[in-house]
Amino acid sequence: MKVGKGSVVSIDYRLHLGDGNVIDASHPGQPLTYLHGEGQIVPGLEVALEGLGAGDARQVVVQPDDGYGPADPGAVHEVPRTAFPAGLEIKEGAEMMAQGEHGEPVPFVVRSVGLETVTVDLNHPLAGKTLHFDVMVREVRAATDEEREHGHAHGPEGHGHDGHGHG
To answer: Would you list the DSSP string of 31-78?
Structure first.
């Protein structure tokens, strides 16, 4: 079977930014499994995997527009240091989490720390970056009716919503 919309795909991958330094990878024996065509991986990688079969390997370069998007300068804000809990150590480069107005998690990166303000970046940490993937397709199978209905792949033990992020 070939990778296409509605197939469940398992891949081994390594990600770097062109310098060979791996910044993310699947763990040995634990491939990333997703439902193809549901936007669960970056669009450029999803398109590149279309039509491949088990055992196929590719090196894929994904430009920012087909990855995490361009960096938006409007997503960088200065906030008062008092907006952070007292006593919290705030370090430049730290990835942190805030709460949105409806209680949703809002990830951000600390860009700089001043005496009175902290500059935070709400862009995804990989926004504006060209992504370099080394990918091996491990398995391709047809999605079950339940997987198609739920919009995501289920594990080998069947279905359970624990860990799927459903609210």
So the answer is: -EEEETTSS-S-HHHHHHHTT-BTT-EEEEEE-GGGTT----GGGEEE
For domain 7-68+127-150, say whether CATH 3.10.50.40 is its number: yes
Residues 126-160: tens digit of each pLDDT? 999 999 999 999 999 998 888 888 888 887 544 44
Taking 3-state DSSP, the helix, strand and coil percentages for the chain, each rounded to the nearest 5, stand at: 15, 40, 45
Q: Please indicate whether the domains covering 7-68+127-150 and 73-121 agree at the CATH topology level.
A: no
Phi/psi for 134 (5° steps) reads: -110, 115
State how far the Cα of 104 lies from the Cα of 121, in Å rounded to an integer: 17
Q: What is the CB neighbour count within 10 angstroms for residue 13?
A: 19
Picking from 124, 137, 64, 57, the residue whose alpha carbon sits closest to that of residue 95 is 124
Q: Which residue shows structure tokens 């700089």?
A: 112
* Tens-digit pLDDT profile for residues 69-108: 999 999 999 999 999 988 899 999 999 998 888 999 989 9
On whether the 73-121 domain is CATH 1.10.630.10, my answer is no
